[in-house]
Specification:
The protein has one domain. It is 44% helix and 0% strand. It contains two helices and no strands.
């Protein structure tokens, strides 16, 4: 994703993490399907 100056103005300095927009989109996707979503974690 290229540098977005408008987005940078809206985000706080603590919100300048790598992949911030992708993390937000993933959160939105998880909340939309929360009744059908399962995480399987194994080690």
């Amino acid at each position: 994703m290229e540098e977005n100056t408008v987005l940078n103005l809206l985000l706080s300095k603590t919100d300048q993490f790598k992949n911030t927009e992708e993390r937000r989109l993933f959160y939105v996707a998880m909340t939309l399907v929360k009744e059908m979503l399962y995480f399987i974690i194994y080690s």
